[in-house]
Each structure stands twice: as C-alpha cells, then as structure tokens.
C-alpha cells in the first residue's frame, strides 16, 4: 500500500466493548469514520477489526543471557508484530531500543528502563543490581530514561533461606515510589511470592507483574488501591519445570513455586472478581519466545475471565490504561483484522489476516 492510498476497513469494527461500527477509513495514516471526499486509490480490507493488540509485559532487546544485538531485537519485535501486538510495554530491558522509534514498521514501545534488583537477587546481566540505599537514585535514573514506567524486582530467591523473599525494606520502596511519582513515572514490580506484596501496595505501587502470591487477604487491598496486575500466565506455566530444576538445592523454593502454579487460575479469577484491573502480558524475551499474545488472552479466559473482558485486557482497555488511543477518530491507524469474531472465540487472535501499522498494511 503506497503512502497516498486510502484504506477502507469494512465488516465489524470493534472499537470498544459497546462500540461496534460497520466501517472505518484510513487517510494519511489516521483513522476517520467519515468517508473521504473524492478518495482515489482505495484498498478494501474486510473482517473483524480490533485496535492493535497490547503486550503489557514484553522484553524487546532481552535474551536468555542478557542484552541482545539489534538484529535479534528486530526479530523479536517483528515476531510480536506478526502476532498482532502493535503496542508493547517493555517491562525492563538492558538494551537501548530507542532506534525502534524510528521504524514505522515495528510496534510502538513504552519503556520501563532497566530492571532494578537487589544485589545477586535476580537473573545475571538483566538488571541493575544495587543495595537499598541506592534505590531512590536508580529509580530516578530509570524514570528519566523510560517512557513513564519504572520496573523493580520485588522478590526473588534468597539463598540463605532457600525460598522467595522480599528484595527491599519497606522504607526504601516508599521513598523510591514517591520519587518515581514525583518525576511523573508509574512503578511496577516483579513479584512471585505473597510476602512482598503488602509493603509494595501500601507504598503506592501502580502495578504488579505476575502477582502469583495474591491471597484472599491481599486482594481487597489491591482493589481498594486500584493496583493493576499483569499475570503473565504463559510464563507461570513454566513454574513446574523451574521447580524441578531447583529441587535438589532449594526444596522449599521448589515446593513454593509448585503451589503458586497450582492455584494460578484461582488467583487471577479472584483478582478479576474483586475488580482488580487485569492486563495481558506474555513475559516474552529472556527464555520465552515473542508473539504469544493470543495464548495469554486464551489463558485469561481459561482462568475464568469473560472473553470480552479478556479482549479488553489486550485491546481498548489496555490502551486506555497505558494512555494510548485505540480505534478513535483521528488516532494513528494501528489495527488488526480477523476472519472471525474474536468475541465468540478468543483463539481467533492467533490468526490475524491483516495487520495495519501506522496506516500501512504490513501483513
């Protein structure tokens, strides 16, 4: 499609849970619901259209052993694009991916800077590894480098106790979150365990990644504070294998990881039922492949979230949470088209027939 062509999308335009239209037009890379006057060179695409999907926990530029080169990062971003993910919240990456912003053919990235972890309490070469007295300074640094988010590692295995344990004292996270908010950034944290959550939420955190440690006594606190979760269920599916690998050295940790895995669906459904905002994230990068967004939506449905709300968690709802438009008049035309209605079966998301990025058909 050339830069001057007009794109006409017909069928069903799913602009919101109750906003379904019959057609839209793309003119100059922007969406309009008014037929353009004297339009020439019109290309028509038909089907069920959604806003470009959101992966709210995705690591472009990260591999199993830390940062990757640009060629690998490009392949990661392209794999996400081909799956219909056109907006990524990069929840921590040691690579500088600002060059992606100059590429009209790659997904948009909202960056959280580099992970901030406790010394020797995270995966090697992923994070800044620091002590509590330096947390505020590093949060300020990443808040300035990122796109409105900062990522903490809230808990990890403590080798001295042989199990998951909080990474930071309460006073340190209170001061760090306050500093991020002062600089206009929101804060999220990697958390597997139960005992890291209360301090982070009461300290004012905005989001928790994974949140497998959510319990009945913590759920009301999350709901009251409006703290979102990104469950990354396709990642939690790997817990049994991780537990098996650590069984001989850390049996307490292994048993704990298995328990968290066994109740993962109940945890997510309990959060949803309580009104906690739930969003789609795959944790792609590191050891997981990119392009898993459809699988994560299906996992949310398996957990008991209604299909329309699971779609919202990767479409209009996720975009609103991240402050980015969907299929709105005048918005940049980022959309995905399917042959069938994804509201009837979210597994349809695994087979996009057209992907439109910045007004151009890229698939």
Topology:
Elements: E1 6-16, E2 19-27, E3 30-32, E4 42-51, E5 53-58, E6 62-63, E7 66-67, H1 70-82, E8 85-90, E9 108-111, E10 116-118, E11 128-130, H2 135-145, E12 149-153, E13 155-158, E14 163-166, H3 170-182, E15 186-191, H4 197-202, E16 207-210, H5 219-225, E17 228-230, H6 233-236, H7 239-246, H8 251-262, H9 264-273, H10 293-302, H11 307-312, H12 316-321, E18 335-338, E19 354-357, E20 360-361
How would you describe what is shown here?
This protein has 363 residues and is of the alpha/beta class. Helices cover 29% and strands 26% of the residues. It is built from twelve helices and 20 strands. The chain has helices spanning 70-82, 135-145, 170-182, 197-202, 219-225, 233-236, 239-246, 251-262, 264-273, 293-302, 307-312, 316-321; strands spanning 6-16, 19-27, 30-32, 42-51, 53-58, 62-63, 66-67, 85-90, 108-111, 116-118, 128-130, 149-153, 155-158, 163-166, 186-191, 207-210, 228-230, 335-338, 354-357, 360-361. The chain has a seven-stranded mixed β-sheet with strand order 3-2-1-4-18-19-20, with no helix packed on it. The longest helix has 13 residues, at 70-82. It is globular.
């Amino acid at each position: 499609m050339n830069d001057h062509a007009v794109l006409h999308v017909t069928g069903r335009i799913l602009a919101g849970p109750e906003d379904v239209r019959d057609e839209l037009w793309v003119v100059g890379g922007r969406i309009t619901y008014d037929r353009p006057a004297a339009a020439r060179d019109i290309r028509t695409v038909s089907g069920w259209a959604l806003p470009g999907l959101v992966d709210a926990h995705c690591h472009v530029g990260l591999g199993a052993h830390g940062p990757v080169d640009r060629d690998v990062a490009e392949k990661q971003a392209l794999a996400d694009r081909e799956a219909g993910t056109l907006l990524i919240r990069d929840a921590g990456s040691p690579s500088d991916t600002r060059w992606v912003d100059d590429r009209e053919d790659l997904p948009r990235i909202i960056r959280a800077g580099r992970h901030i972890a406790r010394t020797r309490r995270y995966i090697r070469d992923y994070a800044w590894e620091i002590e509590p007295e330096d947390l505020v300074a590093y949060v300020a640094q990443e808040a300035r480098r990122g796109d409105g988010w900062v990522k903490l590692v809230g808990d990890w295995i403590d080798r001295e106790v042989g199990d998951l344990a909080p990474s930071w004292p309460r006073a340190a996270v209170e001061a760090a979150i306050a500093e991020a908010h002062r600089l206009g950034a929101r804060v999220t944290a990697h958390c597997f365990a139960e005992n890291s959550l209360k301090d982070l939420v009461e300290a004012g955190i905005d989001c928790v990644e994974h949140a497998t440690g959510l319990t009945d006594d913590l759920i009301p606190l999350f709901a009251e504070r409006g703290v979102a979760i990104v469950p990354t269920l396709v990642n939690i599916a790997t817990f049994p294998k991780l537990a098996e690998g650590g069984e001989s050295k850390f049996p307490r940790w292994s048993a704990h990881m298995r328990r968290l895995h066994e109740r993962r669906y109940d945890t997510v459904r309990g959060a949803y039922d309580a009104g906690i905002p739930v969003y789609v994230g795959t944790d792609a990068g590191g050891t997981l492949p990119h392009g898993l967004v459809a699988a994560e939506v299906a996992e949310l449905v398996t957990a008991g979230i209604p299909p329309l709300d699971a779609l919202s968690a990767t479409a209009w709802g996720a975009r609103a949470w991240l402050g980015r438009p969907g299929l709105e008049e005048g918005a940049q035309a980022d959309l995905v088209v399917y042959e069938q209605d994804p509201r009837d079966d979210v597994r349809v998301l695994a087979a996009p027939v057209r992907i439109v990025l910045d007004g151009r058909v890229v698939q």
